[in-house]
Amino acid sequence: MRNKWIVYLLALAVFLIGTIEYIISGILPIVAADLGIATSTAGSLVTTFALSAAVGAPVVIAATIRVDRKKILLIMLGIFMVSSCLVYFSHSLEIMLMTRMIQGLSGGAATVMAMAVATRLVEERNRGRAIGTILMGLSGSLVLGVPIGTLLSEAVGWRNLFIIVGLLIVIPFLAVIVKAPSITEQRAITLGMQLSILKDKKIVLAVVITLFYVGGYSSLFTFISPFLQANVELSAAALSGMLLIAGICSFMGSKFGGVMADARGPKFTIYVGLSVQAGALLLLTWSNGLIYTVIPLIMVWMVGTWMTSPAQQLYLVTLVPQSPDIALSVNTSFIQFGFALGSGIGGLVVGSSSVDHLGWSGFAMALLALLLAARLFSHDKNPGHAAIHKNDEKIEVCTD
To answer: Across the chain, what does the average pLDDT equal?
Structure first.
């Protein structure tokens, strides 16, 4: 693959962006104490980032569709670096929310632009590998970024941690300046084109499933640190270790889900993934906070949740084989909407009752996603969807 080291550096940028987005979940009690707010209120910092990425990024991309993609990527990475440093000066909830809004907008747009640039840096036959490498950077932020960041936050301080992670983006920033060519889209994908696919009821139902299963995940994961520490005192190292195990399980789930989707089809995999997710969340509500019961259930929950993701995206691609890039773009926005919905509902649960009840809110949303999937697939008259994917694997990854 030509220019693969630049693609790896772009994946590093996405890894750092994902770390900035998700790391709040690992240090939520620390952030809440520093800002002088309740833990439930601090969850709004996750919601704000996700909403800004979901709504703002597609608007930025559509509004700048005729502008050089390299230039937009550099601008977004620059804004993200500055906003990460602004965390140091954000000493009130209001200012912190504004900072997170800027981070979400610039980080979301930069992630999409990184994929666009990566596909132009490699041969056409390797574009799928390039996009897969970029997305591995995003999943890697959960596997490594959150637990390592949680551990380091105690040593360097959570505000300094944001600055360190943000400044590391200067490495891919300089690589883009030196090596990336100017890129102008040959086929403009406007905001109207993205929204037009929502006229199809099947697609609407499919992305709503994404909204609820991601929401069920986010409602607990946003508050995973206080949830794990609700009934036992954990050191930063112990908490970081548990988050690392959870991250590894998410990576395993994604891999297993992709393999199962190829072998048994996306519908079967979605059923299994949602069932495992809902079942694990239900059992968590009955675990009474016993850490030796909670940890295995968290591992199963992460595998089930993340095995749904590749199957869900493959299913969407089969629904819109002529424009898979648009389908995946819309689904990405609904993933961020799901993070916002889940963290918002999780905050309400924590604020009104107890962190121990988060399993119920997650279970309700995962169960709703499962029921919607049953309805969608029962009315799906086209049995050839899985075959379309298997016979033309390039459909999955063509995004230019």
So the answer is: 84
